[in-house]
Design a protein that fits this description.
This protein has 803 residues and is an alpha+beta fold. It contains 15 helices and 48 strands. The chain has a 6-stranded mixed sheet, with helices on both faces. Strand 17 and strand 18 form a beta hairpin. It is an enzyme of class 2 (transferase).
Length: 803
């Protein structure tokens, strides 16, 4: 029967658009305006088969925090295959995820502040959780504007493809979703590479596995037959791992870059009630042998060795008389449980008789050698190590003798290691002596004197008893008078701190008489010292100047401000001294000094390291402004007050000028504070100041980090470049941001991030405080979680051109 053209036209209009099969699941499509919350009835969106779910999962380590994730939903352990933000963005119970009307995902906190977005550049008509494990935002014609497959975390699934520039990042531990120590990268040059990553700086060591397909590798494919391979431009495939005969109809499959740096392919029987994930293939086959880094500790931490178990899992073990730094995180390495051989001049001969050796077979730390002797017999080799205070391990092999010193790196154990080692250990009861109790020779002599005097006194119990009674009377009587007459310091009873109270004598001894000065400021001088504990903890002691009213106030403010804080980007306060007129603060020591020395005193530092420092400072300020129990405005953010630890992690210090706000307080009245070049304009207007003064200072520092120069440099020949904020703004307006990093090859190769950071900085240094973003917004823009809009033209513009 013929059908008229008008009927055909009507049917065409009424029929839904034809879309790919993978998206044709309208019965489970998620409409615009839908939302999820961590707690309640709407916590997940499931795929049509129910195999996968997208939504909020409570963290194993803290059930009050949640992870935005995708997981296998039909199996008992709900294995996670995707999660947001590398685990750095835990969600709280009051947060909300919404598929907004503009067609993108928006994660907001309970105040409505946006935490994360899938991107606002393109729109979608609906979302869907697919049976492949891919969560998509799609238009009615089937085109995808965002998908989880393009933003992987640590796992790749069947039908997923990783294009050039994509990567997997291992989590820190199975239950810790923070970014871990290893990366799988499909590089732009076509090479598939596994890298170890420095924690916490994020820098990469030399690769431990590579496909060596530079110029011909195109993409990493996990096909539906269970094979994972690198597709090559010549039409061939470079195999990586393969599940072999495990069909997708019978088994769930995934491949995960595990916390130990191994890419393992797993299968799980779908119809099993008591099954579990089984590893069927892995790459590399033995990471203990594969990883060999010139710098860093290797697979396991320093003084540890890597062991591959029968089930292909990796374990990190300690040598005899060593223990884990952290038993729950064995990869952090091992420490000796005894006082190591002391290198003081008079003690070496005495100490060497306190040590012995224990034999270890098939173990080696191949990069720790510092001396080699040949020919030398076994006994002489052993004695040579026992008499050498630097020697921790010795290797003897056919008249070759190699001595190794701490820390030991790249440790591995296995039958393939044809080495026999002698590890220096304490002899007999000496093994019970802890590190802090082994004294230098002069202290030992003092100790012998005390023992001699004590023996004489104890020889006459009557005399000793009389002496003891007299001492008690003296201490009781005169101690009471001293306490009555002593000048009391500021009242710290209300600080509520769990800090150690040091005596002045303790700190004088720890700093060797305040001998090594490492810094100074308006309120005092900072000295380096060592605590007399078992770790010889290195400390920085800030000695406040004369006990004038203003310094007394700064001392109390700094105690209150930093004593109650705890964040990895804030310097940790260990204790204080409040004795008579002496006011001292004891901090953890920052071995890489201040940002000033890092940026301005030497060659231009690594760009990626500068990026991490900028992010660290931003996160520290965010904590002070919004996340600390007592909100704090620092008021003196400058490079001298940003310190760097041994891993170049940025930590904010010096809270002497800080202002503490009440819970409901957002602004305060105060006199002008801060340092020239970093002070926000509102300080000079006699108005109430807010946390935006710290945002302004951060913007100046961010430009200094980008350009590796001070904000004001009067000696520059070109007067248009004297003030950094003016000059960079002019460069940005003229489209010449590249001039800000001229000569910096690493930064020039990352111009997209450079421009992003410059735009954030220009937002921060707006003269009007209300135009400046909060530190939360600043942090999100720096991390790329939200787009950076074009900053308005600030009134600070110099009116000159960028040259």
């Amino acid at each position: 029967m013929a059908i008229s053209s008008s009927v055909l036209l009507s049917l065409f209009i009424l029929l839904p658009p034809i879309i790919p099969n993978s998206l044709a699941q309208s019965n489970s499509n998620i409409s615009l305006g839908s939302c999820l919350t961590p707690i309640g009835d709407n916590t997940t969106w499931r795929s049509p088969s129910g195999d996968f779910a997208f939504g909020f999962r409570p963290l194993d380590t803290d059930p009050n925090l949640f992870l935005l994730a995708i997981w296998f939903d039909k199996i008992p352990n709900k294995t996670t295959v995707w999660y947001l933000g590398g685990g750095t963005q835990p969600v709280q119970s009051g947060d909300k995820l919404q598929l907004v009307s503009n067609g993108y995902l928006s994660l907001e906190d309970q105040t409505g502040q946006q935490i994360w977005t899938s991107g606002t550049g393109s729109t979608a008509d609906y979302a869907a959780m697919l049976d492949t494990g891919n969560f998509v935002l799609a238009s009615s014609d089937g085109s995808i504007s965002w998908q989880s497959f393009d933003n992987p975390s640590d796992t790749i699934l069947p039908s997923q493809v990783l294009s050039q520039g994509s990567m997997l990042r291992a989590r820190l531990m199975d239950t810790d979703y923070m970014p871990g120590r290893f990366i799988l990268s499909v590089q732009q040059d076509g090479n598939l590479v596994f890298y170890p990553i420095v924690q916490p700086s994020g820098f990469s060591y030399d690769p431990y596995w590579a496909s060596h397909t530079v110029g011909i590798g195109t993409k990493l494919v996990y096909n539906e037959t269970g094979s994972i391979y690198l597709a090559l431009a010549n039409g061939n495939d470079f195999p990586v791992v393969s599940a072999g005969s495990y069909s997708l109809s019978m088994f769930y499959q995934r491949a995960t870059l595990d916390p130990d740096g191994v890419l393992r392919q797993y299968v799980y029987p779908k119809n099993s009630t008591n099954g579990g994930w089984s590893a069927v293939d892995l790459q590399p086959l033995d990471i203990c042998q594969a990883m060999f880094t010139e710098t860093g500790s290797g697979v396991c931490g320093f003084n540890s060795y890597c062991k591959l178990n029968g089930n292909q899992s990796v374990d990190c073990e300690c040598p005899p008389h060593y223990s884990y730094l952290d038993p729950s995180r064995k990869y952090r390495g091992c420490k000796p449980n005894f006082a190591v051989h002391n290198c003081h001049a008079e003690g070496t001969e005495v100490d060497q008789g306190l040590f012995d050796t224990v034999e270890l077979k098939n173990v080696d730390w191949p990069l720790a050698d510092y001396e080699h002797y040949q020919p030398l017999n076994n006994e002489l080799c052993r004695n040579n190590c026992l008499s050498d205070c630097f020697c921790a391990v010795v290797v003897y092999n056919d008249q070759d003798c190699w001595k190794k010193k701490l820390p030991l790196s790249n440790g591995r154990v296995g039958s393939y290691v044809q080495r026999t080692l002698l590890v220096k250990i304490p002899k007999g009861n000496y093994s019970q002596i802890q590190p802090a109790t082994l004294m230098p020779a002069n202290k030992k002599n003092d100790k012998r004197t005390l023992i001699l005097v004590g023996s004489v006194l104890l020889g006459s119990s009557a005399f000793f008893n009389l002496l003891l009674i007299a001492a008690i009377i003296f201490i009781t009587f005169y101690g009471f008078r001293i306490r009555r007459n002593a000048k009391l310091g500021p009242d710290l009873s209300t600080v509520g701190l769990s800090l150690r109270c040091f005596t002045y004598r303790e700190l004088e001894k720890a700093t060797n008489g305040f001998r090594e000065e490492v810094g100074s400021g308006a309120s005092g001088v900072v000295y380096k010292g060592y605590l007399q504990d078992k770790y010889d903890t290195c400390i920085a002691v800030k000695k406040i100047g004369k006990a004038l009213p203003e310094t007394e106030k700064e001392f109390a403010v700094e105690m209150q401000a930093i004593g109650k804080t705890h964040h990895k980007n804030l310097v940790r306060l260990l204790g204080y001294c409040n004795e008579g007129k002496e006011r001292l603060l004891v901090y953890e020591f920052m071995s890489n000094r201040s940002l000033t020395q890092f940026l301005f005193n030497g060659p231009r530092p690594d760009w990626n390291r500068r990026v991490q420092i900028a992010l660290g400072v931003a996160r520290g300020l965010l904590y002070l402004h919004e996340e600390c129990s007592t909100r704090i405005i620092h008021c003196d953010i400058k490079p001298q007050n940003i310190l760097l630890d041994e891993n170049f992690v940025a930590k904010i210090s010096d809270f002497g000028l800080a202002k503490l706000l009440k819970t409901d307080q957002t602004q305060t009245n105060t006199g002008i504070r801060g340092t020239r070049g970093y002070v926000a304009p509102e300080w000079f207007r006699n108005v109430r100041i807010t946390s935006k003064v710290d945002v302004y200072s951060f913007g100046v520092i961010l430009l200094e980090i980008i350009c590796c120069r001070r904000n004001v440099e009067a000696e520059i020949g070109d007067e248009e470049q004297v003030i950094l904020t003016y000059w960079v703004n002019d460069c940005y307006r003229e489209g010449r941001v590249d001039l800000a990093v001229d000569g910096d090859e690493e930064a020039t190769a990352d111009m997209k991030r450079v421009e992003q950071f410059v735009m954030v900085a220009l937002w921060c240094v707006q003269e009007e405080p209300s135009l400046r973003p909060t530190m939360r917004k600043v942090t999100q823009m720096l991390e790329g979680a939200v787009d950076v809009p074009m900053p308005p033209e600030p009134s600070l513009t110099s009116g000159t051109s960028c040259r």
